[in-house]
């Protein structure tokens, strides 16, 4: 399902216009992105948690030259699915 299909489904399910459904979806996405960007976590019941994970600096290897390189520490996005989502995928 792509974004437009999701918007159509939301509009039909909630009995609202596609424009209203798309506005709500865009607001949800923006809220999740802003929360994760600020380093906080957002939890949506029956869906999961969106947050970040700190990755420590480490040594790596350039596959082309074999040279050892230093990979900087960084923060990456993390999603932890809720039990209800895991159960639904397994069914």
Automatic annotation (TrEMBL):
Pfam families: Bac_DNA_binding. Keywords: DNA condensation, DNA-binding. GO terms for molecular function: DNA binding. SUPFAM superfamilies: IHF-like DNA-binding proteins. It comes from the Bacteria. InterPro entries: Hist_DNA-bd (IPR000119), IHF-like_DNA-bd_dom_sf (IPR010992). Belongs to the bacterial histone-like protein family. This is HU family DNA-binding protein. It comes from Undibacterium danionis. The lineage of its organism: Bacteria, Pseudomonadati, Pseudomonadota, Betaproteobacteria, Burkholderiales.
């Amino acid at each position: 399902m792509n974004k437009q299909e999701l918007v159509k489904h939301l509009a039909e399910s909630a009995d609202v216009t596609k424009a209203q459904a798309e506005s709500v979806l865009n607001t949800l996405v923006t809220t999740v992105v802003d929360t994760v960007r600020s380093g906080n976590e957002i939890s949506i019941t029956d869906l999961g948690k969106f947050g970040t994970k700190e990755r420590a600096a480490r040594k790596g290897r350039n596959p082309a030259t074999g040279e050892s390189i230093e990979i900087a520490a960084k923060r990456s996005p993390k999603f932890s699915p809720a039990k209800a989502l895991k159960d639904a995928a397994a069914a």
